[in-house]
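Posting here for the record, re: adenosine-5'-diphosphate.
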Amino acid sequence: MPSARKAGWPPPVWRPVVFYALVAALWIMFSDVLASAVVRSVGHFTLVEILKGWLFVAATSALLYALIQRDTSALRRSEALHRASLESMADALFLVDAQGRIVEANQATLKLLGLHPDRLPKDVCQMLTLLDIRHPDGRPLACDELPSCRALRGETVREEALELQRPSGERLHISVTASPVLSGTGRPPELAVVVIRDMTELKRLERMRDEFLSIAAHELRTPITTIKGYAQLLDRWTPGGHEPREGRAFQILNRQSDRLTHLVQELLEVSRLQLGRLALQRQRFELGALVEDVLERMRGVSSGHHFVLHQEGSVFVDADPDRIEQVLVNLFDNAIKYSPGGGDIEVSVTLQGTLVVVSVRDHGMGIPRERQGQLFERFYRAHAGLASDRGGMGVGLHLSEQIIQKHGGRIWFESEEGRGSTFSFSLAQAQAQVEQEARP
Ligand code: ADP
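Prediction output follows.
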């Protein structure tokens, strides 16, 4: 067992006290013996005792003064360090107490909010009204929905996207992170730390990129359609038919321009989505029939795969059939593309409560576990850089997720590397059908 000394006893904070207690004990034990040995008369002895008392008081006061001095300068140093770290931050950072009052803020806070130092709001609710803080879609926020208030209730809020308006009228996109300062005693937090990052410039650049993508994709569509049209025309018009080699060339030209059209279409859709221009045209239709339809077309695309459809009765949904078709085509395309060895592709349309669930299962290469987390992110390709990389832009799943979410549905997957993947999505069953089935 390690000795107490080895473990650093006494702890640094106790060292002056232990030292003081030792000196005081020695002083009490030996000072009287010493005084009586040196001073003989009672009068002088009393005087020495009084002087001894004063000496003791003076020594104790000096020790106390030294200790206070030491702690104060340590406190000043730590405060200067704390202030310097706050001020060196490019992001706005402020502290909020349990009553929602702003107790400390760095210079960047004033700069980001566009406020004069003496116009900094007293509390976060005042800040909410003064800066007209809203959700990115323009919805207003209640004061207790603010990240700072949620942090004071113990929640850690990470990078929440919000908007605010500076007193000059300029609107900013911000990302807010708020954390509770916990004392570790199980009591509610007394402080919350709030960090605000200005995302306006980044959003502007993203918007520029999406505008560019949208224009480029739009402009590319016409020449591609023309190339495909002429390739088909030439294929049909060659007098007396053409050589087998030429026929193959026309086929390749046709297939590649189809591929290009598909890529350009995906780019266009993804930029439309980012720019908020992807509108839904909802109508009531039978989902199983649409699945069957798309599947039939897919059978013609790949002869190496065997499509198996399983569905229970007919289920209706209120959705945009074109968009749902787009999701189905993408899931079927991926199932084919990522099972290059062929095999069964099992598709099911089932009813789970009032939800219709469509699942597409392949027995292909699957997705490595460590690459599964970001699968629905824009431009993310799980097999990039691997021998199993099949090319592509990584937008299909992102688009599918956005489309399903816009319908109020959910999309998810299960996958095991080397064994295959199952992609599923759910949509609410059409209300009319739910009511009809509920009737006795
Ligand atoms: P793309 O297939 O064009 O790259 P997607 O957005 O459709 O784009 O898919 C993103 C990534 O997810 C793909 O690059 C691939 O790594 C992975 N993936 C999608 N579907 C499957 C599947 N059925 N099996 C294995 N991996 C898949």
